[in-house]
Design a protein that fits this description.
With 317 residues, the protein is an alpha/beta fold. The chain has a single domain, classed as P-loop containing nucleotide triphosphate hydrolases (Rossmann fold), CATH 3.40.50. The chain contains 9 helices and 10 strands. A hairpin with a 2-residue loop joins strand 9 and strand 10. The longest helix has 16 residues, at 190-205. The protein binds adenosine-5'-diphosphate (ADP) and magnesium ion. Magnesium ion (MG) binds next to helix 2. The site of magnesium ion has 4 residues, from helix 2.
């Protein structure tokens, strides 16, 4: 049995490899009265080979955190590392290259080019970079995502779930160090969404990838090894081995009032920040599907957002 999940809590104590890290990260938008503090001193480490969910109400800074960690956006203060490399201070050209070589992205809107086939979409980032895909890896990704018989199709000939699987394959194709997914199931029906989540899980367990997924859906977060909670631009809590029930419970505590919850002084610090934060740990984290399927309603704290976040679009939710 894989020990990656079992080691999660111990690994959080520190000393294990991080795929991305931020220290005292601050991001503000605008000036004067229009100034918005999107991130207000975030310290976070993303474990390599792990699946991390980033949760929180609309406007809490989830997308901003993802963009800052991925080098899609500059920071106002603080420092960010991708792997061993500090990215704060890099210029646009250096950031572009770093993203191209080390980061894969998935968004709520699949962002596929309509005139290209599925296969062409999958290899597009590498084609642009002038890199030859590793054919064996690509075959593995395509078969994992069950896209073998869809490669010649254009996006319009594919279902939403299939399109997101193509986007997932595109994110994986260059074998990035880190995949960032911003509400990747937000536009999918629950069944296609579940498939995409299972593929992301498989990318971590089977292919050794690192995934950071922004979501406000407890059912989606339950696929992750760890859930981080953002509120007003700060990480206010985290949970190892989240289940849909425990995530929902936590969200309700936060929705009821900040006093009800005990924010942690620092994420990932201390020997076992989650020791008592998960009142009913699932003895087997992979057995979610055996228990009662969570049918929790969407929490009222984060209504479904409008247009998908994209690096260039204004983000208001
Ligand atoms: N490009 C931007 N310009 C101005 N404000 C922004 C921009 N992007 C995000 N914000 C603001 O920053 C805060 C955090 O936004 P965001 O990271 O998109 O939150 P989330 O993804 O959790 O919904 C919000 O108040 C949002 O309105
Ligand atoms: Mg967002």
């Amino acid at each position: 049995m894989s020990t990656s999940v079992a080691d999660t809590a111990k690994g959080a104590a520190g000393g294990h490899e991080t795929a991305a890290r931020a220290v005292s990260l601050v991001k503000t938008y605008g000036m004067g009265e229009a100034r918005v503090v999107a991130l207000d001193g975030v310290d976070v480490s993303i474990g390599r080979g792990r699946f991390t969910a980033v949760m929180g109400p609309s406007g809490s800074g989830k997308s901003t955190l993802m963009h800052c960690l991925a080098g899609l956006d500059t920071v106002s203060a603080g420092r960010v590392w991708l792997g061993e490399r500090e990215i704060t201070g890099l210029n646009d050209r250096q950031l572009t290259r770093l993203r191209r070589d080390h980061v894969g992205f998935m968004f709520q809107s699949f962002n596929l080019l309509p005139t290209l086939t599925a296969e062409e979409n999958i290899t597009l980032p590498m084609d642009i970079a002038g890199r030859k895909p590793d054919r064996e890896w690509l075959r593995e990704v395509i078969s994992t995502l069950r896209l073998g018989d869809r490669l010649r199709h254009r996006p319009s000939q594919l279902s939403g779930g299939q399109q997101q699987r193509v986007a997932c394959a595109r994110a994986l194709a260059a074998r990035p160090d880190l995949i960032f997914a911003d509400e990747p199931t937000g536009n999918l029906d629950s069944r296609s969404g579940l498939e995409v989540l299972q593929f992301l899980r498989e990318a971590v367990d089977g292919l050794g990838q690192t995934v950071v997924m922004v979501t406000h859906d407890p059912n989606a977060a339950a696929h992750a090894d760890r859930a981080l909670y953002l509120a007003d631009g700060r990480i206010v809590d985290e949970m190892a081995r989240p289940t849909a029930e425990s995530v929902l419970e936590r969200m309700q505590i936060f929705a009821t009032g900040p006093k009800a919850a005990q924010p942690l002084p620092a994420t990932g610090a201390g020997p076992s920040p989650n020791a008592d934060s998960n009142p009913a740990p699932d003895p087997d984290p992979d057995s979610d599907s055996d228990s009662e399927p969570p049918t929790a309603p969407r929490p009222a704290t984060d209504p479904p957002t409008g247009p998908a976040s994209s690096p260039d679009a204004p983000r208001n939710g």
